[in-house]
Every structure is written in C-alpha cells, then in structure tokens.
Design a protein that fits this description.
The structure is a single chain. The protein has helices at residues 3-19, 29-45, 48-58, 66-76, 85-88, 94-98, 105-112, 116-119, 123-139. With 153 residues, it is mainly alpha-helical. The chain has one domain (3-145).
C-alpha cells in the first residue's frame, strides 16, 4: 500500500476516534513513519505483544480489517460522522474538502469500509465490496493538509 494513503487512513481514523472522545493523539507524518518502521522491526523479530500494541496506536487495519472495524463500530456507537458521506467530511478541514473531486468523496470511501463486517459470511459480496473500495481508493486524492504544505509557510 502507498505509505501516504496509509497515513491518510490513519489520520482519518484518529480524527474519528478523537471526535468521539476515544483518543487524543494524531501523529505527524514523520512520527508515523518512524513508528511504522518500528512496526516492521517488531514483526520481523516476532514480538507479537509489542506489535499488537503498536498496531493499535497506528490504527493499523482500522478501515480494512473487518474484525478490527467491527470492534471499532462498537466504540463509535451512533457517531454523527457515520450518518452520511457529507457528515463524515465534517472531520476534514475546509482546504482538505476543497481538494476532493466532489463533496462526499472521502466520506463515501471511508464509510464504504463499514460494510465489511456484515459481509464476512458472504464471500461474493465481500469481494465485491473490496473491489468497490479499491476503485474508490484509486479515485481519492491525497487531500490532507500534511501533503500540501508549502515550505516556509
């Protein structure tokens, strides 16, 4: 996976959890990259407990792992951000919303992942949902402000 997209997914998961009072941390891009490298070291060394702890901090698989997502949905409850693609995009800054190809694009992508837990027992529907998510991902630009900063500003 593209490391920038992975970071963007991490930020959106973090913002959602912060909005619900379930977290207080959003790592900067360099901090995230440093911890991501540490994750690779932990995986190679077989230190599974430390790896699991770091995975939680990095929100690794938050959107794409149906079991993690099912657990997260229990914590998120009736979060207003989950009501519609436009409601989800309230988590974005105005400049970030302006970088999308159309209103609701990021919301449709991230909320599309919410279908996965319910589809685990239907392999065909699950595969179709994954294909749809891959298409949405290809069309979704890198919209975070972290990727669009001008040096010196």
């Amino acid at each position: 996976m593209d490391p920038y997209r992975e970071y963007q997914d991490y930020v959106m998961a973090s913002r959602l959890l912060i909005a619900r009072g379930l977290s207080r941390e959003v790592l900067g891009l360099s901090q995230y990259a440093r911890l991501r490298l540490k994750r690779l070291e932990l995986a190679a060394s077989g230190r599974l407990w430390a790896l699991e702890h770091l995975d939680q901090r990095l929100r690794f698989g938050f959107w794409s792992n149906p079991l993690r997502l099912k657990e997260a949905l229990r914590w998120l409850g009736d979060a207003p951000y989950l009501e519609s693609p436009l409601a989800f995009e309230a988590l974005l800054y105005p400049e970030e919303q302006g970088r999308l190809c159309y209103p609701g694009q990021a919301g449709a992508y991230y909320l599309g992942w919410l279908r996965l837990p319910a589809l685990l027992m239907d392999p065909r529907a699950f595969e179709e949902a994954l294909r749809e998510q891959e298409e949405r991902q290809r069309e979704l630009p890198l919209f975070l402000n972290a990727f669009h900063r001008v040096p010196g500003v």
